[in-house]
Design goal:
The chain is α/β, with parallel strands linked by helices. The protein has 6 helices and 10 strands, in the order βαββαβββαβαββαβα. A hairpin with an 8-residue loop joins strand 2 and strand 3.
Length: 265
């Protein structure tokens, strides 16, 4: 039986400068991702050959609430992604962590790069009266399954998983077409600490995550919140950033693999 070809679109964003961070590793990673690649590790599922199309927002997301609030609906509408992956920096962590959920409220407490907050009144107007405006929204992707696939793709033991992340968080956060690359678990091996967390925080990382989860629920339905936020640690050298790229590529494969097993045949 010949394989069915399938393209899965993953929208990725990274943040720009904020506070004393002038070179944000979340954007350094995002900007290096290949636009297209295929994964042999996914091709044995239901005789489907999968090509993953990675769309990277062509500039770093400004660490500003109102800019994010205006940007997310446009990105979701224009790209119609199957999965959304936001990447941001957690300055006090030394590990990579995917976040389970995000809060609707409390973005009035921390000033963004424009020295502004997202007020309680703005929150209520945007999300306070709709079904998608629940006080807390979680991704509908099975993150336990994602973790297992992610660790396997990185050549790590799948029995060591990770506890919750720190509550402290700081904001984190091309259209250039690149040659299609073949990738798979075998060439992703990297020594790294990856975890499952539920501490995205109440700064721009939590804000973009909630805005996306709510936006997906509104545009589709409440079972279609296929988005994940990834916190990365400070990555000081080019070698560290390249390691981060491998970590994110393995995560993208894991997200796609999990989604394919969850979606109706």
């Amino acid at each position: 039986m010949s394989a069915i070809e399938e393209t899965v679109t993953v929208l990725v964003t990274g943040f720009g400068a904020f506070q004393d961070v002038t070179k944000n590793p979340s954007w350094e990673i995002a900007s290096r991702l290949s636009q297209y690649y295929s994964s042999s590790s996914l091709n044995d599922y239901n005789h489907v050959e999968t090509t993953i199309r990675v769309i990277v927002h062509p500039e770093p997301v400004r660490a500003a609430y109102h800019s994010i609030h205006d940007l997310i609906p446009t990105l979701l509408q224009s790209h119609q992604p199957d999965i959304v992956l936001h990447i941001g920096l957690a300055t006090e962590r030394d590990y990579f962590a995917i976040e389970q959920s995000a809060d609707r409220d409390d973005y009035h407490q921390n000033l963004d790069v424009d020295r502004k907050v997202f007020t309680k009144a703005e929150t209520k107007k945007s999300w306070g009266t709709t079904k998608s405006g629940a006080e807390r929204l979680s991704t509908t992707l099975d993150l336990d399954d994602v973790m297992e696939r992610w660790r396997k793709g990185l050549g790590l033991s799948t029995t060591e998983n990770s506890g919750g992340g720190e509550k402290e968080e700081r904001g984190g956060e091309g259209k250039k077409k690149k040659k299609k690359q073949k990738r798979g678990a075998a060439d992703m091996a990297v020594d790294v600490d990856v975890r499952l967390s539920d501490g995205v925080g109440n700064y721009v990382c939590g804000f973009i995550y909630y805005a996306t989860l709510a936006g997906l629920a509104r545009q589709r339905d409440d079972s279609q919140r296929r988005a994940v936020f990834l916190h990365v640690p400070p990555l000081e050298t080019e070698v560290d950033v390249e390691k981060g790229v491998k970590v994110v590529l393995a995560l993208i494969e894991a997200l796609v693999g999990t989604w394919r097993t969850q979606k109706p045949l």
